[in-house]
Fold this protein.
Amino acid sequence: MTELTTGERIALYGGGGLLLIGTVGIGLLEIVLGAHHPVSGEGQVVHETLVPLGLRSSTILLGLLVWGTFAAAHVVTTPPTDTSV
């Protein structure tokens, strides 16, 4: 295994960071700041979020797109190695 280049580190850590922010970071923010879950008159729980779901899912999707783009570029630019003896 070779050492990672600066561009590869940016792609891997950037995509992973976006995924962590979207899942763990925003999840902890919701827990700590305590989004309220009131019950309506019919007994249905109304879910309110502090961070809009569109923003949270976009952050996660952007992280996955960064990783996917890196993986596709890596497959295209890396020549196959001959492992036969």
